[in-house]
């Protein structure tokens, strides 16, 4: 069976007066049906731009300049605007960070959920409202009727995020993209939301999720596979448990070792240095200026993503055919 989503050599650039920002610069990976894939990397790695590219909501000065985005058998890069409009929200739904900025402050949240249903599935308002209440119950809202009539400012940040999840689910999409869904909530609420996302994946047979985060710990506790991004490139791909146990790329190792752990006495390691200027990235491997293991070739040529066993890929000259 073909993957639900297959991204091939995607490049999304932003053309500014000062120069060209290569936000996403030739990435390729798949998302299988029923799978939860984590996209991890520091802020500025290109994770969110990649997600917006899938939804075709990159606007000037941004532009998809190359590559293919195959979703359920259709190339979204080539699809006409009308078709993308039908897919967006109905077949692919996105949960944005900072939900308060995404919700209409002067409309009850229940009406906003129902409006999504009416827009993409039609029907009567009463049916949509009933469906919205069902969604609120599904995302474990304690008092759906009260919350349905509430405005965003009357709800907590964690509750607003549950509203966003309900809006994403109401049309039963094939793919949900969650962009930093726990930003701005405390640790307890974060755990509840992540548990909810996992439970929903189990209840919705065939639905896939893409979880975007800068936190390797969040990805490790949530997803099946992980895609590690850095400065618009993919550094490593693999099953979460394997990557977490034995990371291959030096950047992945630094990400994992930077996670604070209460069972260890030593302080977490910092990656050191800063992300490169996206307008003038370094020649060769983008991570080479910060890498403690960089070889001469790392500063001269950009490594390709090579297979390292079942389901594992790495873009690093320390491994495989690069090292021979």
Structural write-up:
- The protein is of the alpha/beta class and about 325 residues long.
- The protein has one domain (about 5-90, about 175-324): P-loop containing nucleotide triphosphate hydrolases (Rossmann fold).
- About 30% of the residues lie in helices and about 20% in strands.
- The strands form two sheets. An eight-stranded mixed beta sheet has the order 6-7-8-3-9-10-12-11, with helices on both faces. Strands 2-1-4-5 form a four-stranded antiparallel beta sheet, with helices on one face.
- It is globular and about 65 Å long.
- The model has no long low-confidence stretch (mean pLDDT about 90).
Concise overview:
With 324 residues, the protein is an alpha/beta fold.
What's the helix and strand layout?
Blueprint: E1 5-15, E2 20-31, E3 36-40, H1 47-54, E4 62-71, E5 74-75, H2 81-87, E6 92-95, H3 109-121, H4 125-138, H5 144-148, H6 157-169, E7 175-179, H7 187-203, E8 208-213, H8 216-220, E9 225-230, E10 233-239, H9 240-245, H10 250-257, E11 306-307, E12 313-314, H11 320-323
Parallel strand pairs: 3-8, 3-9, 6-7, 7-8
Antiparallel strand pairs: 1-2, 1-4, 4-5, 9-10, 10-12, 11-12
């Amino acid at each position: 069976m073909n993957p639900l989503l297959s991204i091939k050599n995607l490049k999304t650039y932003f053309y500014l007066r000062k120069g060209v920002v290569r936000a996403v610069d030739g990435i390729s990976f798949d998302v299988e049906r029923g799978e939860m894939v984590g996209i991890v990397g520091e802020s500025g790695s290109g994770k969110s731009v990649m997600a917006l590219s899938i939804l075709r909501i990159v606007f000037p000065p941004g532009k998809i300049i190359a590559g293919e985005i195959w979703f359920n058998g259709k190339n979204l890069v080539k699809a006409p605007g009308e078709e993308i409009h039908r897919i967006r929200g109905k077949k692919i739904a996105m949960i944005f960070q900072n939900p308060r900025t995404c919700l209409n402050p002067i409309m009850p949240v229940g009406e906003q959920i129902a409006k999504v249903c009416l827009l993409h599935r039609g029907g009567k308002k009463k049916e949509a409202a009933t469906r919205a209440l069902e969604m609120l119950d599904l995302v474990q809202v304690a008092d759906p009727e009260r919350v349905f009539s509430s405005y965003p400012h009357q709800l907590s940040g964690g509750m607003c995020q549950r509203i966003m999840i309900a809006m994403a689910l109401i049309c039963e999409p094939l793919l949900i993209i969650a962009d930093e869904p726990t930003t701005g909530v405390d640790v307890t609420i974060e755990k509840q939301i992540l548990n909810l996302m996992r439970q929903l994946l189990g209840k919705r047979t065939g639905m896939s999720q893409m979880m975007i985060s800068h936190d390797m710990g969040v990805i490790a506790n949530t997803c099946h596979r992980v895609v590690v991004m850095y400065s618009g490139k993919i550094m490593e791909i693999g099953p979460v448990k394997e990557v977490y146990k034995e990371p291959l790329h030096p950047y992945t190792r630094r990400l994992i070792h930077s996670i604070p752990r209460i069972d260890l006495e030593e302080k977490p390691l910092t990656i050191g240095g800063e992300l490169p200027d996206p307008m003038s990235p370094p020649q060769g491997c983008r991570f080479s200026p910060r890498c403690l293991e960089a070889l001469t070739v790392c500063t001269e040529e950009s490594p390709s993503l090579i297979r390292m066993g079942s389901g594992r890929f790495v873009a690093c000259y320390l491994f495989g055919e690069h090292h021979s």
